[in-house]
Amino acid sequence: MKNTSLLWLLILISLLSCTTNQARLTVSPSSSQFFIRDFVSLSCEEDDSSAGWTLRRNTSKQQRTQCGAGWGEAAGSSCNISYIYTSHSGVYWCESREGPISNMVNLTVTGGSVILQSPVLPVMEGDDVTLLCKTKTTPSNLPAAFYKDGSLIRKQPTGHMTIQHVSRSDEGLYKCDISGHGESPSSWITVTGRPTTTSSPTSSTNMYPTSALSPSSTTLPLVIRLVCHLVVFCPYFISTLVLVSLYQHRAKGNDPTISLETATNDEEKSSEDYDDVAEVTTEHPF
Question: CA-to-CA distance for 73 and 32, rounded, in angstroms?
Fold first, then answer.
């Protein structure tokens, strides 16, 4: 019973040693599309600041560049972009010095006059989602037409549309059009099921087209994260088994060092007995 308790204690310590803190990337204002020269703030919300989270991005011209390295101004775990341009379009995520990454966010900056404000993060099934079609200089309540996957959904006289109780079928590419002003870029809206247990956000460092993110893009980071946890956990688990095995050997008195010393003493004693017999034979020949 004592050995079993020790085994479980060591395994628990190993599991706690493998645990990594997670960060969640948020965007303010909460939108996936922006006009040129808009102000944008991205924050790595974290449980433990000691993890050292850094904001990184992939664009069409640069890969894995961090905030402050030619773009943005780092402010603790946040990154502020005072004047955002089309070159800032890309994928953003938080990355710690220990390796894990946060959820991934795709931002699009347009030089046009119309954008679609849509949820930048995945939405839960059953929630209500409001889409807003707005222009840069005119009021945001102009009549607008909304499209999903290239097909017209409806025309709204006030420029915004609410999808009530979203489901997986509502997932797709959305855009809007304001007559006389133009059409917005397209943005992918992801719908996720309500989790029964607390789950960790996932992400990917791959560069995706700024016009869309496919649903399969969320599965690869999950697999990568699982493999990383297995790679980290295996050495701890193996070392735990070795420690328990050594403890059991010592508890039973099966110390290999003692056994080796005993065997050596026996060999020396046998050698001495043989020498004694040889001496007796030499002194009393027949």
Answer: 20
